[in-house]
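WARN no homologs supplied; continuing
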Amino acid sequence: MLNPKIRRFLNPTTLLLAALLSGSALALAAPPQPGQPLPELALKDQHDQPWTVSGDTKLVLFAAGRKASNLMQTVLTGQPAGFLASRQAVYLADMSRMPGFVTRTFALPALREMPFVVGVVLDEALLADWPRPDGAVALITLQNGRVNTVSHASTEASLRAALGLVP
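OK structure emitted
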C-alpha cells in the first residue's frame, strides 16, 4: 500500500501534467507543409550526438524504410566528407520500425562508418505524419527555414539530380 502523501500526487491530473512537462507528449513533429516553417527537430545522429536542422539548410532528405535508405546509401557512397553540408542538405533516417536489436547491432554501426551525419529517428510517433513515399526518399526543400516544396526521388538518377550530381 502506498503512503497517503505519495498517493495524492499520483492522480490522473498530476500524471498528465508530468507527461506534458517532460516534453514527450510535445515531441511530435507536424508534417512539413509548403509555406510553413519546418518543424523543429531535436534528435540524435548516428554517433548519439545532438542533431538539428540548421537555419541555412536548403534540402532535407528523409528516408523512411529500407528501400529509401538503400537508395540514399547508393547515391552517397563514395561522396567525400562534407558533401551534404556543401549542398546545404541534411539526411534524416527513420529507423523506428526496425527491430531495436537490428538497429543497435547492424544499422547504426554501418551508419557510423559513413563520412556524413545522419539524423536518426527511433520513435515511430515522432514523424508519423511526414511523407513516406513507397521506396522513395522524401525531398523537402527549404527557403529561410520554411518549407518550399515536398517531393520525392524514387530512382538513383532523380536523387542524384536533387543533389546536383552528374548522372
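Residues 5-27 have pLDDT under 50 and may be disordered.
OK
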